[in-house]
Amino acid sequence: MATPWIAPSILSADFARLGEEVDAVIDAGADLVHFDVMDNHYVPNLTIGPLVCEALHRRGIKAPIDAHLMVRPVDRIVPDFARAGATYITFHPEATEHIDRTIELIREHGCRPGLAFNPATPLDYLDYTLEKLDLVLVMSVNPGFGGQRFITSALRKLEQVRRRIQAGGREVRLEIDGGVKVDNIQAIARAGADTFVAGSAIFGSADYGATIRAMREQLARG
């Protein structure tokens, strides 16, 4: 399995000092910066767009940018995030009429495609797409808001995706998003995740570095 990555979600950061916040979590040991992009259409909330991504990219952030697009339709915004400096672009199958076309669009713009699954979304969409993906995102909350409680059925879904990835023989990141904390990250890793999105657990803590270190200690225990 791939080296574990910690991906702080800037949805929980202090937006009045966002650049400093992102610098702080990277300096604290984050591997990936997670962007929760919401459109008040596909999900009931409105957050950030490609201009924020571009501003952070120009700032020279040292970690890859993981753009999670909770928008519909999604194809129109993909090129904007690619130009803005995203490394991974992940979308929901319900947000496009043609999943394969969207995957190819992301790849054509030089980014790594990911597919995201809401808690009740079946994994059937992976039957004909997994071989084209670089990341699978399992939502352990219903998308739209930060600070929600972890939905435990996501563990079973992680196990199922991990089996599919192993059977495929390619390295595909398996990401979890929602309710990830120090006290449950070990169980989440055992279920198969290797990339851990954490928002309030990191940005709501007094010491970002201590929280990320505590997460890594839990992961190291297996």
Textual characterization of the structure:
The mean pLDDT is 94. 34% of the residues lie in helices and 18% in strands. Strand 4 (88-91), helix 4 and strand 5 form a beta-alpha-beta unit. It has a single domain (5-220), classed as TIM Barrel (Alpha-Beta Barrel), CATH 3.20.20. It has 8 helices and 8 strands. The radius of gyration is 16 Å and the shape is globular. It has 222 residues and is an alpha/beta fold.
Please give a handful of descriptors for the protein shown:
8 helices; eight-stranded parallel beta sheet; TIM Barrel; 18% strand; 222 residues; alpha/beta
Main β-sheet, in a few words?
A: 8 strands, parallel
Tell me the total number of β-strands. Answer: 8
**What is the N-to-C order of secondary-structure elements (H for helix, E for strand)?**
EHEHEHEHEEHEHEHH
Task: Figure out the total of helices.
Answer: 8
Please state roughly what percent of the residues sit in beta strands, choosing from under 5%, 5-15%, 15-25%, 25-35%, 35-45% or over 45%.
15-25%
CATH topology: TIM Barrel
Uncertain segments are none
- Total discrete domains: 1
CATH superfamily: Aldolase class I
Task: Just give the CATH class.
Answer: Alpha Beta
- As a whole number of angstroms, the C-alpha radius of gyration is 16 Å
Which strand order spans the largest sheet, edge to edge or round the barrel? 1-8-7-6-5-4-3-2
Structural class: alpha/beta
Specify the CATH architecture: Alpha-Beta Barrel
Mean pLDDT: 94
**Judging from the principal axes of the Cα atoms, what is the shape?**
globular
Termini separation: 12 Å
Helix content: 25-40%
